[in-house]
Specification:
The chain is mainly alpha-helical and 88 residues long. The protein has one domain (2-80). The protein is built from 2 helices and no strands. It has helices at 2-47, 71-80. The longest helix is centred in the N-terminal third of the chain and has 46 residues, at 2-47. The termini are far apart. 1% of the residues are buried. Bound molecules: heme C (HEC). Heme C (HEC) is lined by residues 42-43, 45-47, 57-59, 66-67, 69, 73-74, 77-78, 82-83, 85-87.
């Protein structure tokens, strides 16, 4: 009997964890889809749809150029622009 109760409890926790993992993952997936759309409409003209820069001086994201910085710095770069060539 005790054995059965353990099985029920474990199954419940397992289901709860699966549900939780589902909600945790759902949001970033939606953000990624939105981010992709924004990137395609605004950023891809210079950085390319595949992340390969279209202009000589544009860093190539496909080679991680320009991305080896902490998130706060990258956030500022995208918000404020860089060196008058990357627009805010
Ligand atoms: C008009 C062309 C242009 C557009 C549009 C553009 N970028 Fe850039 N981006 C550049 C150039 C040029 C650089 C390199 C700037 C430099 O180092 O002088 C750059 C650099 C970057 C960097 C590296 C930042 C750093 O600190 O070196 C990131 C990240 C970036 N762009 C993201 C984006 C995102 C995200 C968008 C869309 C929201 C975007 N760019 C739109 C031209 C552009």
């Amino acid at each position: 009997m005790e054995h059965d109760l353990n099985a029920v409890w474990l199954a419940r926790v397992g289901l709860a964890m699966l549900a939780f993992a589902g909600t945790v993952r759902a949001a970033p997936a939606a953000d990624a889809v939105r981010g992709r759309a924004i990137y395609a409409s605004i950023c891809s003209s210079c950085h390319g749809l595949d992340g390969i820069g279209n202009l000589e001086y544009v860093p190539s994201f496909s080679k991680c150029e320009g991305l080896n910085k902490d998130s706060a710095t990258l956030h500022t770069s995208v918000r404020d622009g860089v060196g008058g060539r990357m627009p805010p």
